[in-house]
Every structure is written in C-alpha cells, then in structure tokens.
Model the fold of this input.
Amino acid sequence: MDALVITAASRIEQDESRTSVINPYRMQQLLYTYKVMKYLMKGTKTKVTYKLHEPYHSMGSVSVTGKDIDFRKMSWFLRAAELASNFEVYPKTDGTVCMTFTFHNLTIPIE
Done:
C-alpha cells in the first residue's frame, strides 16, 4: 500500500510542476454549476461556494451546505451534476449536509 501511495504522490507532484493554462470549457462548466446551484438555493439559508485550483492546480469544486437542501427543478440539478467529475454528499458535525461537485482538468498542460 505504501508503494501505491508513493507512486501516486510522485505522479501528482510531476503533474503539478508542469506549466499549464486554464481550460476555458471546463472552467465554464464549473461556473455554470455554481450559478445553477445559487439559483436553486435562492431564498434559502443554504450556502453555495466555489474553490478554484484546490487542492491541486487542475482541480476546483462547488459546494452546497445547509440544513434543508431542497431542489424544485431536478432537471437543472441533474444537468449541473453530470458536468462534474465527482459528486459527493456527506453530513457535517454542525448538523448540516454538504454536497460537493468536484471538477478535474481545469487546466491544460502546455509542455
């Protein structure tokens, strides 16, 4: 297992050291998901945020956090979710639920 982790870490380090530029298509998908979630959560206490280039330069995410997350336009939610590379839902210790849409390939290597 240690060898697997070391191999993965070296590949990530190598990938992160390469010069890259923003992938506008992928960035547009992340921002679309953010705007759709903001619209769907409008008028609620649910918090919608996004992060770019975390935890790696080529990644970003959109998070929706709240106690009562309810979607009235499920087709909009599904369209936004299918754009993401990964989607996860988990409870937090403060009694809220967090949904995170993760996006890979926000940057393109130019080397």
The beta strands are 20-22, 47-52, 60-66, 86-91, 97-103, 107-109. The chain is about 40% helix and 30% strand. The chain has a mean pLDDT of 88. The two ends are 31 Å apart (CA to CA).
